[in-house]
Amino acid sequence: MKGGLRQSMAWLHTWSGLLLGWLLVAIFITGTSAYFRDEISFWMAPELHQSVASEATPELAWATLGATAPDARAWDIILPHDRSPVAELRWQPDTPEAAEGGGRRRGERVEMDAGSGEILEPRASRGGDFLYRFHFELYGVPRIWARWLVCVATMMMLVAIVSGVITHKKIFKDFFTFRPGKGQRSWLDAHNATAVLALPFHFMITYSGLLIFMVMLMPWGMNAAYEEGWRGFFNDVFPREEVAATGSAPAAMVGAIQPLVNRAEATFGQPAQRISVSWPNRDNARIEISTGKEPAITDRRRGGNPALVFDGGGKLLDTKPGLYDDGASARIYNLLVNLHLARFADPATRWLFFLFGVVGSAMAVTGMLLWVSKRTQQLRGREPGFNLRLVNGLNMAAITGLMTAMAGYFIANRLLPADLAGRESWEIRVFFLTWLATLLHALVRPHRRGWMEQLAALALLWLAVPLVNLATTHSHLFSAIAWRHGALASFDLVCLVIAAGAGYALWRLAGHRPVRKPARAARAARALPEGETAS
């Protein structure tokens, strides 16, 4: 770290980005996919694609729960919405086990066809939730250690962003400069452009990612102020409503839920989203119907929607406008967390965040490739050493390997038998086995031919995803179902775009011929006066 501030920052930028760069690439890519987590999960459950919401959906769900779990301690109906056309039914059995922890266990859950009321049985799959959880908890690592590792990598990313801005004194000028086919210079131009293009997004997504884990990273203030530590803090800032601990005498509830749904929708001018019932078919039953509202970027992560509360007989008990004054600190926290998760976003905004995530992934990727390109040019024709071959192989596995593994995960979803025991675990095994195969290949062939082979595999597998989907389901690019649910058609189109991108990269790499600079001796000879020779 000798030299001035800019030289010191350059050293810091290089090594903070390199040491955990492979993990950061995985975090960025899987995090980018998480913006369409629900859509990925829906694509991976083709048994749900025939569902179409109707006005009868609330009554069908109400009757289904009344017949399936009349003695449950709680019901929860999540009505169809723009990201899922099925109705999700949940209930908690009235057992001593379910009563533990205040009755907040997940209980049972089924998917219902919103048009017919038929209980659907989708294939077992973790769907987009696997990629989402991998983004910040990895997999197969104890949760607390995985979160700490991700937080350390995120802090290194924040350091790399700040030091990178300080290092590049012509960073905005370089943003408008791209020189293709120039090796190291081209990678630097691409790195600068992707860094500056979405610089506010990069800083926001990194800083807010650390803020989400503030309770884990810096619990000392909450532990000092509250006897219960961080639990006491959140109970104070986000208090839970008291719910009766036990049910009372049996009593009939309203037979038709639609009039209550209509009343809630007329009151708030928004469609109903959720019907929650505590102690159904008891005389202390409470029915809460919550509706949507205009999204606000400072909203609470959970709750806060307008709702009407009725007793079991349909008598209005309370009106919740969904307006909360949580204080400035809570609103700032909600702002940054909602920005990170894009919970407030409409489809257009979600696509914008997705594109920013792609740019962020490209920034991390080009930074890793730039490191190798710079040191490869310094070899001047010599064979690369073990360290450089290792870094190049790890780059290959982290970039093309991870993307290939994701394609394998989606293909496994379609090809594994629907009744396979532990099916969701086998999908994840295919993901990691594919990734492991690319890692072994990259370590054996950490050179240009290796990159070409992995790019070819990447293009073929992503092309295979929509083709396998075409062969195994009725909701593909050439079916009305896929276009009725735009997420299904968009998924296949994105797969084709990725395959085309990998194919283009393969074509460019196969036709690339590195420009060899004149030897230093030749340049020196031309610079000598006439008649003299170099000694």
Automatic annotation (TrEMBL):
UniProt keyword annotation of Oxidoreductase present: no
Record keywords, A-Z: Membrane, Transmembrane, Transmembrane helix
Residues forming coiled coils: none
InterPro entries recorded: PepSY-ass_TM
TM spans (from-to): 12-36, 145-166, 195-220, 351-372, 393-411, 426-444, 456-481, 487-507
Keyword Transmembrane helix: yes
Superkingdom, taxonomy of origin: Bacteria
Segments of this protein annotated with the region Disordered: 92-114
Basic and acidic residues bias: start-end ranges: 102-112
Full protein name: PepSY domain-containing protein
